[in-house]
Amino acid sequence: MGEINDLRFTATPEDLARWEWFFKEMEKRGLITIFEKSNQYANRGDSKLKRQYFKVKLNVDNSE
């Protein structure tokens, strides 16, 4: 099994919402465990992009 990974996404607010939905769907299927999820934060300057952080563990073992 995997260790906890710190993930940072930089995207539009709409795409960040899609990533969050995707992670929740993967968690429902038992593929990952979400330990933390941040709010969306503004980037510096006048960027339209936001950033969001996740702490996730992969629950799949792909070693064969």
Given helix and strand content, the structural type is alpha+beta
Please, what is the oligomeric state? single chain
Shape: elongated
Strand content: 35-45%
Largest beta-sheet characterization: 4 strands, antiparallel
Given the structure, what is the number of helices?
1
Number of domains: 1
- Give the low-pLDDT segments: none
Order of helices and strands: EHEEE
Question: How many β strands by DSSP?
Answer: 4
Q: Termini separation (Å)?
A: 13 Å
Explain what the structure shows.
This protein is an alpha+beta fold and 64 residues long. The protein has one domain. 25% of the residues lie in helices and 39% in strands. The protein has one helix at residues 13-28; strands spanning 4-11, 32-37, 41-42, 50-58. The radius of gyration is 13 Å and the shape is elongated. It starts with a strand and ends in a 6-residue tail after the last strand. Keywords: Plasmid.
How do the helices and strands line up, and which of them pair or pack?
Blueprint: E1 4-11, H1 13-28, E2 32-37, E3 41-42, E4 50-58
Antiparallel strand pairs: 1-4, 2-4, 3-4
Keywords: Plasmid
